[in-house]
């Protein structure tokens, strides 16, 4: 008899898993407490997958042999608690995809910041070098849908801690851990150590011969590594020390040593600017060298990469005022990186849904660079409290249009208006893309 697979959540990962599950002979049922988007409904209908929306039929869900839970659903959800209490195994979509990937290789990237940029850069280098590869996970297609519809020899996967929480056998050939800073603590009982352990699950199934690329300048990572012994090939990267095997930047030169061939290039040739992107570029270069991509291909690709939409994206210069869209900055650390890379006086647009933010992290940079803060959220009390003593001008607004007009009125020629909210977007927008798009539209309307 076919194994019953119940999928909670009818978004990209849920529908991707449903398509793959059906293809592999499971009896699949998708259940979503909210409404399922039309495009996803038609996907499910085409593949003859049974589904329900705006409700959960508990009897049918609890009759499952296995449940795949979308990453957005927390463990404290009452239905998830019942499923676990019934002893039904819960997996994530990347676990399902992994089971059916065949002989393909996986490069998996996680970290609190820079995941999307690094994943896209690795994919760009691999594609440039002629690999048949796909960009999957948190960006692009869901991993499961890609495996079902267009399998590749290499998957470059952006993986969140939520996806790692429910893996069993998932094992990347190359694991990349960029950094770990306090984020999503609301999902980890407000315990930082739970979140750290979750990120490190990316290497828990690795075997000798696999590689682990990590930042040797990240104290959290280095301290955690003292208590565990990865059995894989460690490839650290650093700006503070010379690395024998891995990568480092000394002065303005990046040096990568993985196999026999060494890759060196000037940081001034990197398409991506800012110190944090030098870390991302090192990680991507090491990953590429590990799968045997030649140094000239790595150099060419690093020079030609275009940065992502909503991540330090230049929008326009209006009467000498530069506008930058960094809507993807949904935590304080991302905003720290954004401010760190800007040289001009800045009007900063902050705010949204706070995930337990500690604004003292950016206090020094705000003092040094920020002349005004525009608070764009339904509850700005925490931001006002954190900065009203150090920023001469604080303004509260309730839309992207208001934020842009207000920022523009406060800006002088040579200033930068930076949207880098440090918060999730769900109070006023659909998601961070919607927030960034509305910001860009408002700039064009000036």
From TrEMBL:
It catalyses: UDP-N-acetyl-alpha-D-muramoyl-L-alanine + D-glutamate + ATP = UDP-N-acetyl-alpha-D-muramoyl-L-alanyl-D-glutamate + ADP + phosphate + H(+). GO terms for biological process: cell division; cell wall organization; peptidoglycan biosynthetic process; regulation of cell shape. Its EC number is 6.3.2.9. Residues 310-423 form the Mur ligase C-terminal domain. InterPro entries: Mur-like_cat_sf (IPR036565), Mur_ligase_C (IPR004101), Mur_ligase_C_dom_sf (IPR036615), Mur_ligase_cen (IPR013221), MurD (IPR005762). ATP binds at residues 111-117. Pfam families: Mur_ligase_C, Mur_ligase_M, MurD_N. GO terms for molecular function: ATP binding; UDP-N-acetylmuramoylalanine-D-glutamate ligase activity. Keywords: ATP-binding, Cell cycle, Cell division, Cell shape, Cell wall biogenesis/degradation, Cytoplasm, Ligase, Nucleotide-binding, Peptidoglycan synthesis. It is found in: Cytoplasm. GO terms for cellular component: cytoplasm. Its main location: cytoplasm. Pathway: Cell wall biogenesis; peptidoglycan biosynthesis. Residues 109-287 form the Mur ligase central domain. Cell wall formation. Catalyzes the addition of glutamate to the nucleotide precursor UDP-N-acetylmuramoyl-L-alanine (UMA). Belongs to the MurCDEF family. This is UDP-N-acetylmuramoylalanine--D-glutamate ligase. It comes from Filimonas effusa.
